[in-house]
Amino acid sequence: MDTFIVAESGADIPRDIVRRHRLHILPMHVSFDRTTMPDGSFPIQQIYEFHNRTGKVPSTSAVNPEEYRTLFETLHAQHPDAHIMHLSYSAVTTSTYENALLASEGMPYVTHVDTKSVSGGQAAIVIRCAEYIEQNPGASVEELKEQIDIWIGQIRMGFIPGDLAYLKAGGRVSNAAYLGASLLSIKPLIEIEDGFLVSTRRYRGSMKSVTRRFLKEYVAQYDPDRSRIYILFSEGIDPVLLRHLEADARELGVESIQPIKTGGVITSHGGPGALGIAGFTTS
Predict the structure, then answer these.
(1) How far apart are alpha carbons 6 and 222 in whole angstroms?
(2) At residue 137, does pLDDT exceed 80?
(3) In terms of C-beta density within 10 A (0-12 exposed, 13-18 middle, 19 or more buried), how is residue 92 classed?
(4) What is the set of domains in the chain, with CATH numbers?
(5) What DSSP string runs through the chain?
(6) pTM
(7) CA torsion 267→269→272→276, rounded to 10°?
(8) Which tens digits make up the pLDDT trace of 176-208?
(9) Phi and psi (nearest 5°) for 227?
(10) Given this model, what pLDDT does residue 185 score?
């Protein structure tokens, strides 16, 4: 039985991978005051220009039930014997999962899984699922879901915002915390824990020194599968920093590095020059 994978644009899966694995990506929404646009339909620079002009960050919203329903019905009409596996953006951060459940009422050919992750973490689960389906074409939906649940338990992702002003503008840090962190060059590490975005530690120093230290501590703490890790970054990252980070990863035994450039949803929260790491723990 054929299986089609559906995910949201907030997974930030590169377009070449989407095409290669025949993934179906539904755009989330980004609102600039009264104008709402599908994620991916505008240049990322527009987010930065909006913040510079207004001091605010765009608001983001989930895929709505009608958008899910239209895709599910279209796929089923074209492939009536296929199953649809929806690997959702973290359910505790947005209404994507709830909206998709509502949209698929009466559709036994759709299975939903909350990946409890976002951006590169969700992308890593989606990509591993697609590769598993290709390698195991006879796998049942139950077998596939069992594997996905294992991967969800293994994924580890964290990121360092490029500009705390974006977190402040979005109401995620207080003005006092923002001023203190800015004066002391403190950069918070945001990790995904059971679907929630949690600040777990603080680094002090330049973005270059902080991210390289973060990579070493990430590898030491989680002992990720070194066959592939995912490096997330938003537009505005220093390319030299990325090259140094990739070289460091190679020295730590990482065989393959999949770059993940964040789209409108994630960039609206992390700002320019944000950087993150995702991978599957082996411990």
Answers:
(1) 28
(2) yes
(3) exposed
(4) 3-153 (3.40.50.10170), 155-280 (3.30.1180.10)
(5) --EEEEEEGGG---HHHHHHTT-EEE--EEEETTEEEETTSS-THHHHHHHHHHS---EEEPPPHHHHHHHHHHHHHH-TT-EEEEEES-TTTSSHHHHHHHHTTT-TTEEEEE-S--HHHHHHHHHHHHHHHHH-TT--HHHHHHHHHHHHHHEEEEEE-S-HHHHHHTTSS-HHHHHHHHHTTEEEEEEEETTEEEEEEEEES-HHHHHHHHHHHHHHHH-B-TT-EEEEE-TT--HHHHHHHHHHHHHTT---EEEEE--HHHHHHH-TT-EEEEEEB--
(6) 0.93
(7) -80
(8) 333 334 434 678 888 888 888 788 888 888 888
(9) -70, -25
(10) 62
Tokens encoding 202: 């603080």
Q: How would you label 104-142 residue by residue, b for 16+ Cβ within 10 Å and e otherwise?
A: beeeebbbbbbbbbbbbbbbbbbbbbbebbeeeeebeee
Written as six digits, the tokens of 223 are: 């002992």
Tokens of 42: 């505008």
Question: Which residue type sits at 218?
Answer: Y
